[in-house]
Amino acid sequence: MKVDVVVIGGGVNGTGIANDAAGRGLKVLLCEQADLASATSSKSSKLIHGGLRYLEHFEFNLVRKALAEREILLKNAPHIMWPLTFYLPYQAHLRPVWMIWLGLFLYDHLTTRRKLPASRKVTFDATSPLESSIKVGFEYADGWVDDARLVILNACAARNRGASIYTHMRCIQAQRQDDYWCLTLRHKDNGDVFTVHSKAVVNSTGPWVNQLFSEAFAQPSPQAIRLVKGSHIVVPRLHSQPQAYILQNEDQRIVFAIPYEDQFTLIGTTDVEYQGDPADASISSEETDYLLAVINHYFKQKITTADIVHSFAGVRPLLEDESSSAQSVTRDYKLALDTVDDRLPLISVFGGKITTYRTLAESVVDQLAPFFPQQGPRWTADSALPGGDFADQASLKQHLLQHYPWLAPSFCQRLVRTYGTLSFHILAEAQTETDLGQHFFADLWQAEVDYLRSVEWAHCAEDILWRRTKLGLQATPEQVQALTDYLQHNTSTTA
């Protein structure tokens, strides 16, 4: 198989790069050693944000870039991203008022705001879920994102533009040979091996970026990285109000408490130095206690480990900048270009954050331009992701209910917030719920499961319940087993 570019890594950066390159006319192959978004890219705080706390570390360029991207992403994916209001309770002994106001002023003015309101001071009354001693705070706006679906939709967009997407496919060797790269790929499930010839390679493997250099490229990495684990817990919803909270802690870190999947609150994150395989990362008891303590300090409703319904941990590959603590390590990224006689480029991605994935991808493909004179211009800033071609969620819900009046409102809302206009492909000609086939639990039906297998590379119950959807929060072990049995005994063509 011969292609222009092989992208190694199926996280948000890799799929973003594949989509951008395919849209500029390049023949692209992406390989991912597990499921798409199976590592860091599905284990974020689910925010599209500039990073208010990064201003304390004087990362003005990063914040400006992220804020500009926030506007673009909210426009291009209104089904999986939407504005979210944050309250920052004021604690006089942690940060002075002038520092918070300065930070919020910069946050409001480092770039043009179109979709989000300016920050302001707020007061908390008896209806506040916060402790009664907390009287004032600050309000600002950022964005929510379904991180895993952002990855999936970029992969779908890349495929729609001609890219080949291979999951469960590990790159075991990559060598320059004469006029091309020769890459050996091995399927993790059946062991099948095949060879790809490519004119360029992109190493976008996140926390495995240096490991790929030693194992597949047999050469040293040009950049040191620092692996930092961030963990989250999910509990039943702490309050019924729509806003999220950004909570200051004594150690100068912040913790988010974010409304999550209607019934829950997502709490995180931590910053812990990490050693070992990123695929094995999990929350520690110390991290759990840390998050519980912060929440219980601020909120009237107290929680314990017994309230935790789910937890996850992701390993972030941060640029090694000799910072003294994990929380102060830069969240910016670096691209390293390596060639031989100005030929056969290898571009490696170090660092980054989900908010800046699109501009990172754009920069990578820009660096490929000298090697591909036929390459087209930049295009992703004004292109909706699959399913995002609609004005707003309310109008799309109404449109869906006109076509499918039997849809339960909660089911309709989940479809809109997961698939956007792609919901019509799942529901197709169904006249009633029973036309959707086997019912698994909640509002998960066979039609959606089959769609996810045939279109979105889903292989197992975990892929469906935690990355294509978040229905794992509602599933019992027996229901997970029933879905697993269906997937094992009913074969279908997969993406």
Keywords:
FAD/NAD(P)-binding domain; D-Amino Acid Oxidase, Chain A, domain 2; 495 residues; 20 strands; Helicase, Ruva Protein, domain 3; ten-stranded mixed β-sheet; single chain; alpha+beta
Short synopsis of the structure:
This protein is α+β, with helices and mostly antiparallel strands.
CATH superfamily of the largest domain, called what? FAD/NAD(P)-binding domain
* Overall body shape: globular
Average pLDDT level: 95
Name of the CATH first level of the largest domain: Alpha Beta
Q: Tell me the quaternary state.
A: single chain
Uncertain spans, ≥5 residues at pLDDT below 50? none
Structural class of the secondary structure composition?
Answer: alpha+beta
Number of helices: 13
Q: Main sheet, how many strands, which sense, barrel?
A: 10 strands, mixed
Strand content: 25-35%
Note down, in words, how this protein is organized.
- The protein is an alpha+beta fold.
- The chain contains 13 helices and 20 strands.
- Strands 3, 4, 5, 6, 11, 12, 13, 14, 15 and 16 form a ten-stranded mixed β-sheet that branches.
- The model has no long low-confidence stretch (mean pLDDT 95).
- It catalyses: a quinone + sn-glycerol 3-phosphate = dihydroxyacetone phosphate + a quinol.
Question: Strands, helices and their partners?
Answer:
Elements lengths: L1 E7 L3 H12 L4 E4 L15 E2 L11 H17 L4 E9 L7 H13 L10 E4 L12 E10 L1 H14 L3 E3 L2 E9 L2 E8 L5 E11 L5 H9 L7 E12 L7 E5 L5 E7 L3 E5 L3 E2 L11 H14 L11 E10 L13 E8 L2 E9 L5 H12 L24 H11 L5 H11 L3 H5 L11 E3 L2 E2 H10 L5 H8 L8 H13 L6
Parallel strand pairs: 1-2, 1-10, 2-7, 4-12, 10-18
Antiparallel strand pairs: 3-6, 4-6, 5-6, 8-9, 9-10, 11-14, 11-15, 11-16, 12-13, 13-14, 17-18, 19-20
Helix pairs in contact: 1-4, 1-7, 8-9
